[in-house]
Sequence to fold (461 residues):
Amino acid sequence: MTVFWSLVRRDLVLTLRQGGGAGMALGFFLTVLVLLPLGIGPDLNFLQRLAPGALWITLLLSVLLSTDRIFAPDYEDGSLELMTMGPMPLELVALAKSVAHWLGTGLPLAILAPGLGVLLNLDTLLFGPIMLAMVLGSLALSLLACLGAAVTVGLRRGGMIISLLILPLYVPVLIFGVAATNSVTGVPELFGPSMLILTAISLASLVLAPIAAAAAVRAHMT
Amino acid sequence: MQAYANPARFNALALSVLPWCAGITVLLFAVGLYYSLVVAPQDYQQGETVRIMFIHVPAAWMALACYSVMALASAVAIIWRHPLADVAAKTAAPIGACFTFLALFTGSLWGKPMWGTWWVWDARLTSVFVLFLLYLGYIAIWQAIEEPARAARLAAIVALVGFINVPIIKYSVEWWNSLHQPASVLRADGPAIHSSILTPLLIMAGAYTMLFLTLHLIAMRTEIMKRRIHNMEQAEVQG
Fold:
């Protein structure tokens, strides 16, 4: 288990200290949020209705754009090959990398989302629910991102393919995440079930995604 | 089954079966189209547009069936490492994508006069659209990776992960309130449609299945020959 946590720590430190880590994702998040009102128009009521969905989609894209940092640097310098031969099963390596990605990208964005939502006139009633739903949902997003990164590691034009592969899998998280967020001002009874399904998706990805990701890494190494 | 994993033997078998498959496909389409476009009665509410259903419903079934074939072949490829299973999975994808597109397109054509809109974002339609995207992603993986063995492994993983969507599509009309009607043919209490509609529908389903079988066999043969040519070229360059 110490190997697991030291890998999480290593990845997290690399994300935070190297450029292009968490700060970059946050910058991207912020930029999209500034572009949205410019494209849609500054009508505050309209923006308020749009805010939860816009924040969720921006979160998906930010997570997606940071996926190339999960496996690619380790693949290039050969440490990924060492990890496949190391004592820890590759499934746990994939899990550790997903957790590090979540702690470094998804979680900070989820916590900051309500604050940034002010730019879109997000209803203050939604601050708590959107943060909770995003913290839960972004775990699934990071796990699936890790799967996508494992499939496309070492490909020259991996970026386009990863969006085609992973965004369809993000659809359930988006649907139930937005449903949970909007239910607070809409139909309050929907909040519980939506959150439960969101949790179920995260837990299922927690078990299944690392297995698939490890299989994909092995396919690249042979 | 194992005996036909040999590509040469498979090719011989496919060659002898293909004319029959093609013949049955043409026959079933001729009968099915006659029954569905001429014999089947108009719907008292939908009028002639009900006939779109005879094209739409089997296409949607085949969209799911193709993905299931693809996922099954991928599982076989991962477990037993049959090269032929790779070929089967790879060649099923474009055919399945076409069926999915046909289902979406004809559904949209039917939706405009009946629902008053080309498209609604409800569970059934959205999940079928996601299926289409999954097909595209799968095809993209094959195109992006040059080395066939590696491409096959990764594409198989992608296909198996995406298979989660198939039961979601099947049950989407029961789990969520949908504008799309629920299952009316395969039900525990028997089909909920009159035989004058059901018979042509089933004939069309048979025709689509045979069409898939024919196209899949042709595509698999083509793929096997393509690989053989590739190997021969490689050998020539090296030797």
User: Anything to note?
Assistant: Residues 180 and 192 of chain A are 8 Å apart (CA to CA). Chain A is about 80% helix and 0% strand.
